[in-house]
Structure formats: structure tokens, C-alpha cells
């Protein structure tokens, strides 16, 4: 968990987020994460994990299946709107958008993240960003799709996906420490939703279910 940021569990559960805050205003929402926060990057990379068909997008503007794994908008779209930014955050790989569009938000969600994150954080720093909140990944192997398709494992969490998420979080934690030490004035915090969410999944009764 981030030590300096009072972030709620709900917020952490919703999305692995990177938010750049300048003068207490949030000028942009940059999303790193897994498919649960992908706004459609999967349409532009070779993968079987697609959502560009109905019923995905059924309740999206125009009924369009954008590549979001949702019937409508996803959590990060709502967060962007709540900050007074665009009601939807575009996918980085979507050719319909350019760098000007990304100035107020972009989604990098997919699986090639750890390497991109460092370069991107350094660029943000170069552009003047100093306070950055970097969100980790949830236990991805416990997401509904993974559990539902884990028939051999009696619909339990899929360990190998959880291992990937935990490893990514470890890398982000190390990266945060490294950049804070290296970049003068940088205040980067890492919020790790993995263990709080795992606690909820293991003992839902403690949380009112
Ligand atoms: C991005 O596209 C918008 C129109 O969609 C255009 O106004 C803007 O100049 C473009 N920006 C760049 C850097 O190409
Ligand atoms: C994080 O850094 C520690 C100490 O340098 C190292 O042992 C560990 O393997 C690193 N974790 C990851 C996931 O790279």
C-alpha cells in the first residue's frame, strides 16, 4: 500500500492507475494494467483475448464493441470523467487518436508493461511531473473469467496469473524505489492492491458478503 496516499480499497480495486497530480488538480489519467482496464489495445496486438463483438459494448456509446471487456464503459473511464476529464480514455494503440488526445489520458493496458513503465515515468519526469501515483495489479488469476474457465481446478484462482501479477508488483515497487532515489524531487508512490484484494477473496464474510 502507498504510505503517503490515503487511497481507498475501492479505488485500488477498480484499477491499476497512474495519476499525475499537479497543484492538487488531476490533468491526466494514464492507465497501466491488465485486460480489466484495457480500452482496446488488444484489437491491435496478436492475442486471442478479444472483446470486439457483442455483447461487449452493448451499452457503450453507439453500442460499439471497442475492445473493452465490458458491456459499457470501464472503471477507468468513470474515474476520468469524475476528474472532469473525458468520459472515456482511449487506447494507446488506437490509430484514431494522437499525442494531443493522450495529453489528458491514455490506456497502456496489456501485457508488455514493466519495460514501458520505466521509460514512460522518466519521460513524465522530464516533462515536469513530480508527484506520481503508480498502481499495482490485482490477483488477476482470481478474476471472474479466469476462475470460470478454470474447470479442472474447480474454479479456483489460477496461480500462474497471480504469480505474474505479484512479480509485476514487485518490479514496480523496485522501480519506484529506484526512481525516487535517482530523480531529484520525485515523489512516486506505489499502491499495491494485491494483498487487500486477496484478503477480500479469501474471507468475503469479513466484508459483509
Ligand atoms: C490530433 O488530432 C486532432 C484532431 O483529431 C488535431 O486537431 C490535432 O492537431 C492532432 N495533433 C497532432 C499533434 O497531430
Ligand atoms: C526487487 O529488488 C530486490 C532487492 O534488490 C530483489 O531481490 C528482487 O528480486 C526484486 N524483485 C523483482 C520482482 O524484480
For the largest sheet, list the strands in their spatial order.
Answer: 3-2-1-4-5
Sum up the overall morphology in one term: globular
What's the average pLDDT? 79
DSSP strand content: 5-15%
The low-confidence parts are 1-17
- Bound molecule kinds, no repeats: 2-acetamido-2-deoxy-beta-D-glucopyranose
Question: What is the number of E strands?
Answer: 5
- The SSE string, one letter per element, is HEEHHEHEHHEH
N- and C-termini, Cα separation: 24 Å
Helical segment tally?
7
Helical residue percent band: 25-40%
Radius of gyration using CA atoms only: 17 Å
Main pleated-sheet profile: 5 strands, mixed
What structural class is derived from the secondary structure elements? alpha/beta
Pfam families: Lipase_GDSL
Protein name: GDSL esterase/lipase
Family: Belongs to the 'GDSL' lipolytic enzyme family.
InterPro entries: GDSL, GDSL_lipolytic_enzyme, SGNH_hydro_sf
Task: Provide structural commentary.
The chain has a domain at 27-107. It is built from seven helices and five strands; from the N terminus they run αββααβαβααβα. 34% of the residues lie in helices and 12% in strands. The chain has a five-stranded mixed β-sheet, with helices on both faces. It is globular, with a radius of gyration of 17 Å. With 209 residues, it is of the alpha/beta class. One 2-acetamido-2-deoxy-beta-D-glucopyranose (NAG) is lined by residues 98-100.
Short description:
The chain is an alpha/beta fold and 209 residues long. The protein has a domain at 27-107.
Descriptive key words:
209 residues, alpha/beta, five-stranded mixed sheet, 5 strands, disordered N terminus, binds 2-acetamido-2-deoxy-beta-D-glucopyranose
Amino acid at each position: 500500500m502507498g504510505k503517503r496516499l490515503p487511497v481507498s480499497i475501492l479505488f485500488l480495486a477498480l484499477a491499476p492507475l497512474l495519476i499525475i497530480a499537479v497543484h492538487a488538480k488531476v490533468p491526466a489519467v494514464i492507465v497501466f494494467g491488465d485486460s480489466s482496464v484495457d480500452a482496446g489495445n488488444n484489437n491491435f496486438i496478436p492475442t486471442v483475448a478479444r472483446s470486439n463483438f457483442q455483447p461487449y459494448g452493448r451499452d457503450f456509446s453507439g453500442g460499439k464493441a471497442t475492445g473493452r471487456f465490458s458491456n459499457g464503459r470501464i472503471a477507468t473511464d468513470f474515474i476520468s470523467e469524475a476528474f472532469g476529464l473525458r468520459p472515456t480514455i482511449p487506447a494507446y494503440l488506437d490509430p484514431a487518436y494522437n499525442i494531443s488526445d493522450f495529453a489528458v489520458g491514455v490506456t497502456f493496458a496489456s501485457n508488455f508493461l514493466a519495460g514501458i513503465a520505466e521509460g514512460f515515468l522518466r519521460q513524465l519526469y522530464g516533462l515536469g511531473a513530480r508527484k506520481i501515483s503508480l498502481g499495482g495489479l490485482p490477483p488477476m488469476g482470481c478474476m471472474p473469467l479466469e476462475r470460470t474457465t478454470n474447470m479442472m481446478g474447480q474454479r479456483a484462482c489460477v496461480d500462474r496469473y497471480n504469480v505474474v501479477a505479484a512479480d509485476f508488483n514487485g518490479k514496480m515497487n523496485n522501480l519506484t524505489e529506484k526512481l525516487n532515489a535517482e530523480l531529484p524531487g520525485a515523489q512516486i508512490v506505489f499502491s499495491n492492491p494485491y494483498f487487500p484484494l486477496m484478503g477480500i477473496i479469501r474471507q468475503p464474510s469479513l466484508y459483509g458478503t
